[in-house]
């Protein structure tokens, strides 16, 4: 069992890290298409080798550290963010069970009874890497970026969990597997139909968790700097991006699992392929939104959180409770 879990962990780590690298290529292509540009095209067929070129560039660039920075904390901050992003994947069932050589394999590390809480809690630890990275940089832009990060993530962590409470009330379990099984029986049983407002709220909160436009304060475009990662270079800068894209993959899969039937079969489409299609669509949606919408101001984002999404979340909890009673 221990060996099997270790193999699963290595496979998930390798696959997600690879997909995170490919995610940078896909984002460039999607943004280029929407802005009538070409995007990467010179390195390899259709520019696909640009991913390898970027990795070589990041590994070879000088690892600069500001003169007055706290060197130890500055160095470990990117790994805190990436560790939180990958640990959050432990209770997520990426695909349905399958059999190989007579052994049933569950493509997840652990089906814990509080899977939802674990995912949200682990992914929220990424805030510490961004926070201490900005504070340790001895740079005013990094400091401002880290403060904005704390502002947005702490606020929307509350919205994140509140939006899922109605589903938890309906299923009676915090296990992701139980939530997916509750949607078995066809498209009509998907929770997106019974809880559409919760889906929209969770989708907005997912953009915050992944630091994505338009609901993002980590980077402020008018500043023309990279927020709390301004002082970082080389592979340390790249690790922050790997964590970000890993979070996008995690939440794309999570949205498909919680609201769109997960790995249950859809019509004639088998469960595994259905899961890949759903998650891929939401990954594309994250990229699409960046090309279509500008950033919200901090005051607009906070107003959206506390004046709109919070009352809606509480209202849905109240309504769901009345219906269930």
From TrEMBL:
NDH-1 is composed of 14 different subunits. Subunits NuoA, H, J, K, L, M, N constitute the membrane sector of the complex. One of its GO terms (biological process) is aerobic respiration. Belongs to the complex I subunit 1 family. It comes from Campylobacter blaseri. This is NADH-quinone oxidoreductase subunit H. It is found in: Cell membrane; Membrane. One of its GO terms (molecular function) is quinone binding. The gene is nuoH. It is a multi-pass membrane protein. Its EC number is 7.1.1.-. NDH-1 shuttles electrons from NADH, via FMN and iron-sulfur (Fe-S) centers, to quinones in the respiratory chain. The immediate electron acceptor for the enzyme in this species is believed to be ubiquinone. Couples the redox reaction to proton translocation (for every two electrons transferred, four hydrogen ions are translocated across the cytoplasmic membrane), and thus conserves the redox energy in a proton gradient. This subunit may bind ubiquinone. One of its GO terms (cellular component) is plasma membrane. Keywords: Cell membrane, Membrane, NAD, Quinone, Translocase, Transmembrane, Transmembrane helix, Ubiquinone. The chain crosses the membrane at residues 7-26, 72-92, 112-138, 150-170, 190-208, 239-261, 267-289, 301-324. Pfam families: NADHdh (PF00146). It catalyses: a quinone + NADH + 5 H(+)(in) = a quinol + NAD(+) + 4 H(+)(out). InterPro entries: NADH_UbQ_OxRdtase_su1/FPO, NADH_UbQ_OxRdtase_su1_CS. It is an enzyme of class 7 (translocase). Its main location: membrane. HAMAP family: NDH1_NuoH.
